[in-house]
C-alpha cells in the first residue's frame, strides 16, 4: 500500500472512531464539556499600569511570565522606568511585544543624582516613540538619602516640563515629601495632562489633596499604612493588612477614591497581594475565585510577584468597595486606555 493510501486509511479510522464517540454521548451525561469561548470570558479585561519587566528577576523566563499574564486576563502592561538605562530597555521590550508592552521614560528620585545635562534630550528622544506612553517615574522621596532633596526637586521639575512639552501623562512618586511635592505640582498648574500616583503609599489626607487636583491613584497589593511607611516590608503591611484606618481602606470606604480615579498595578516582582492575610474577612476570602487564586498560588510568591496576580488584586479591591470584580476590571482598564492613549 502506498504512503498516500495508508494516510487516507488512517484518517478514515480516526474519523469513524470520532463519529462513534459523538453518537454514543448522551445529552444527560455527567461529563463536563468545556466551551473554549465561555472559558475565555471567565477572564477579566485587565491592564497592568505598573510592572517592572526589566527587573533581573524576569530575565530568564520573561516569555512565560507574559504568557501567564495574558492567560490571566492582563491584556496590556506598562513598564515604569526609573533611570535612563531602564527607559531604553523598556522601549526595546515594547518594540519586541507591540500592543502588549508599553514603556515610560523617566528618572526616579532615588536616581536623581545621576542626572546629566544630556538626559533631558535623551528622555525626550525616547518619549517621541509611540510605545512610550508616559514620563516617569519621577517625584520626591525623602525617606531614603539616595539623592539630595535639592537635586530631587530640580530633576522633578525638569521632568514635569518634559511631560508638558511632550503632552504625555506623568507617573509620580512621593514618600515623606508631601509638602514640597505639592508645592512643585501647584507651581505647574494647570498641568493639562493626566498625573498618576504610582504605587501610592501615603496617607488619607495626602491622597485627598492629590485627588482634588484631578490625579489618579495607582493601587497595588501592598499599600503601606500611614505612619509606618519607613518600616514597611512586603510581608507585613499592605492593602490586605491595613488595620490603621488611615490608609487605602479609608479612602475607599469614605468614597473619596472612586473607580474613575483608580488604576491597578501589580508592581511586580514586588507587592505580592497576600490573599491569606489575617485581616481579610472570611467573606472576602470566600469571594475570591479559584481561577484567580490558582494564578496567584501557582506562579507568584513574596519573593517574585507576577502580573498574573492582578485578578486577585481586582477581586480584593471589588470586595472593599462592594462592587463586582468585572466592573472594577472594566472601569480601571477604561481609565488606563483613556489616560495612556492605548488602543
UniProtKB/TrEMBL annotation:
| Domain of life the protein comes from | Eukaryota
Keyword tags? Hydrolase, Metal-binding, Nuclease
Keyword Hydrolase (UniProt): yes
The UniProt entry, under InterPro entries, shows: Metal_Hydrolase, TatD-like, TatD-type_Hydrolase
Keyword Nuclease recorded? yes
The GO terms describing molecular function are: metal ion binding; single-stranded DNA 3'-5' DNA exonuclease activity
Q: Which GO terms describe its cellular component?
A: cytosol
Q: What is its biological role? A: Deoxyribonuclease which catalyzes (in vitro) the decatenation of kinetoplast DNA, which are circular DNA catenated to each other, producing linear DNA molecules. Plays an important role in chromosomal segregation and cell cycle progression during eye development probably via its DNA decatenation activity.
Q: Which family does it belong to?
A: Belongs to the metallo-dependent hydrolases superfamily. TatD-type hydrolase family.
Name of the featured protein: Deoxyribonuclease TATDN1
Q: Which organism is it from?
A: Aphis craccivora
Amino acid at each position: 500500500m502506498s504512503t498516500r493510501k495508508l494516510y487516507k486509511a488512517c484518517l478514515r479510522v480516526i474519523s469513524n472512531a470520532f463519529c462513534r464517540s459523538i453518537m454514543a454521548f448522551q445529552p444527560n451525561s455527567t461529563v463536563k464539556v468545556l466551551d473554549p469561548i465561555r472559558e475565555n470570558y471567565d477572564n477579566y479585561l485587565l491592564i497592568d499600569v505598573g510592572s517592572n519587566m526589566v527587573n533581573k528577576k524576569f530575565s530568564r523566563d520573561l516569555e512565560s511570565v507574559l504568557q501567564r499574564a495574558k492567560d490571566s486576563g492582563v491584556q496590556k502592561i506598562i513598564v515604569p522606568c526609573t533611570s535612563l538605562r531602564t527607559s531604553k530597555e523598556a522601549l526595546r521590550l515594547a518594540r519586541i511585544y507591540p500592543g502588549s508592552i508599553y514603556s515610560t521614560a523617566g528618572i526616579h528620585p532615588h536616581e536623581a543624582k545621576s542626572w546629566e545635562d544630556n538626559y533631558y534630550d535623551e528622555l525626550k528622544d525616547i518619549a517621541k516613540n509611540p510605545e512610550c506612553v508616559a514620563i516617569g517615574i519621577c517625584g520626591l522621596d525623602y525617606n531614603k538619602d539616595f539623592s539630595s532633596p535639592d537635586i530631587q526637586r530640580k530633576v522633578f521639575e525638569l521632568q514635569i516640563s518634559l511631560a508638558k512639552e511632550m503632552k504625555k501623562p506623568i507617573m509620580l512618586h512621593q514618600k515623606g515629601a508631601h509638602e514640597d511635592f505639592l508645592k512643585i505640582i501647584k507651581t505647574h498648574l494647570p498641568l493639562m495632562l493626566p498625573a498618576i500616583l504610582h504605587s501610592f503609599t501615603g496617607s488619607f489626607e495626602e491622597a485627598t489633596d492629590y485627588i482634588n487636583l484631578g490625579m489618579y491613584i495607582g493601587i497595588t497589593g501592598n499599600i503601606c499604612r500611614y505612619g509606618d511607611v519607613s518600616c514597611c516590608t512586603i510581608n507585613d503591611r499592605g492593602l490586605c493588612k491595613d488595620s490603621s484606618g488611615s490608609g487605602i481602606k479609608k479612602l475607599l470606604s469614605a468614597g473619596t477614591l472612586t473607580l474613575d480615579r483608580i488604576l491597578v498595578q501589580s508592581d511586580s516582582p514586588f507587592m505580592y497581594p497576600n490573599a491569606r492575610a489575617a485581616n481579610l474577612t472570611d467573606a472576602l476570602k470566600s469571594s475570591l475565585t479559584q481561577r484567580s487564586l490558582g494564578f496567584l498560588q501557582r506562579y507568584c510568591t513574596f519573593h517574585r510577584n507576577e502580573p498574573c496576580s492582578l485578578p486577585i488584586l481586582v477581586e480584593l479591591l471589588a470586595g472593599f468597595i462592594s462592587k463586582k470584580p468585572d466592573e472594577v476590571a472594566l472601569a480601571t482598564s477604561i481609565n488606563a486606555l483613556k489616560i495612556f492613549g492605548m488602543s
